[in-house]
Amino acid sequence: MSAYGDTRAITPPDIRSRKGGTPLVCLTAYTTPVARLVDPHCDVVLVGDSVGMVLHGLPSTLGVTLEMMITHGQAVRRGIKQALMVVDLPFGSYEESPEQAFRNAARVMAETGCTAVKLEGGEAMAETIGFLAARGVPVMAHVGLTPQAINTIGGYRVQGRGGDAERIRRDAIAVGEAGAFAVVLEKVPEALARRITKEVATPTIGIGASAACDGQILVVDDMLGLFGDFRPKFVKRYAELREAAAAAIASYAREVKERQFPAAEHVFADAPKPADTDATKSGEAA
Ligand code: KIV
């Protein structure tokens, strides 16, 4: 059941209408099983270009390709029934011109079945956002810390603590006025997030930007404790699945070496017994 009382898929206008209301719940997903887990609880599921670091071991999002986003978008699509699905446009696929952005956004939408795309940048991307929105491509914007600009920013530190606060405020206003249906605010101080959320008619989705925003997003592997030892201040660990998985794998290795696994219940008899007729994963009867 969605926040709107039925099971129809959530749309960009639904998200826009939640401005100032019950906070929007958003998470990333990159695979079908994880999309199935997060979908019932989320308003927005983002196939983020963080997939490059989280699943592919890349040092930043800069090496993520359109093909990677499409492959993961297709997987996530199969796991979503009700949330709004957004796919990140990767670095280099939209900055050149509004036409380039439209061509690649349309391909992502057609090949993944997503409803919207996300792109990074403020005032500099306003024209592109307007171009896309006017041609049937709903856009989620992303300002503050924009990881695709890591080489110009010079690091992943908090943005908007000094003179750049006014620029980030102008960025958020510009993308809202250009037609973005939501704007991600990444790693900005609470006072700035509060001010922007108050001034901009578009819902703000915070990541490291305080509860003053209209919603929150986290990288799902971070909040589940699956992604390495990455422990930024803004991520709350709701589980420690990496530790649980490491302990399970160590148990398996020990039991194999000690011939405790497989045990009698995992072994097939010469002739099938009634309790022994489960289909295996490959569809083969016991
Ligand atoms: O790529 C991503 O996962 C994102 C979120 C962190 C907002 O852009």
UniProtKB/TrEMBL annotation:
It catalyses: (6R)-5,10-methylene-5,6,7,8-tetrahydrofolate + 3-methyl-2-oxobutanoate + H2O = 2-dehydropantoate + (6S)-5,6,7,8-tetrahydrofolate. It is found in: Cytoplasm. Binds 1 Mg(2+) ion per subunit. Its main location: cytoplasm. Its EC number is 2.1.2.11. The active site is at E186 (proton acceptor). PANTHER family: 3-METHYL-2-OXOBUTANOATE HYDROXYMETHYLTRANSFERASE. This is 3-methyl-2-oxobutanoate hydroxymethyltransferase. It comes from Mesorhizobium caraganae.
